[in-house]
Write a structure and sequence with these properties.
The chain is an alpha+beta fold. It contains one helix and four strands, in the order ββββα. The longest helix has 21 residues. 3% of the residues are buried.
Amino acid sequence: MRERYALKCPSCREEALIQRGDTNYECIYCGYKKDLETYEPGSSSLIIWGFIFLIILIAILQDVTKPPATPLAPTNAPSTDAPGEQRYPYTH
């Protein structure tokens, strides 16, 4: 025979929550009842919001670490210096 232990009630914090059936629990102290078979939409919303936050964070981090689309200093661009003017006058 399986032993049953009283669990701590989330409502009154007493160790008086007992199992009634396969999925029903009831507190014998304050009368709190919980059916684990029923779906509560609020219970998974934290997981969904966490997943959305993670996707947005990954998208932002990928955008920050991506190299710029255009080079900062073009290597083969025509010079805009005036004729006879040196770009780097201090040479070694």
